[in-house]
Amino acid sequence: MKREYVITVQGALAAAGAFLSAKLGILYPVLCILMGTMVLDYITGMLASKNEAIDHPGDASYGWSSRKGAKGIIKKVGYLCVIAAAMVVDYVIVFVSAELGMQISV
């Protein structure tokens, strides 16, 4: 790879990280840890399916398949949707309570 390309990608990732950190505040490290564990979970699932294929070489129902991989990714997207919905509900509760004159410490 060309050095300029690597520097451009690093700059873009740093800018995206800084933007998200500014917008999310204290939630940014937590969401980074969540994303990291999701990636680790997906990788370990792929390694487990490879091990499963080695243990059962003649059976096509064992091992890695696109369907199983897609199912894992869809499940992780579902997790992120639930977290996003919870964050929206939290924001609405805090915003509405402020409009009603109630103090909720976060």
From TrEMBL:
Signal sequence region: none
Membrane topology term: Multi-pass membrane protein
Main localization of the protein described in the UniProt heading: membrane
GO CC, one annotated term: membrane
Keyword annotations of the record: Membrane, Transmembrane, Transmembrane helix
One Pfam entry name: Phage_holin_4_1
Protein name (record): Bacteriophage holin family protein
Organism whose genome encodes this protein: Enterocloster clostridioformis
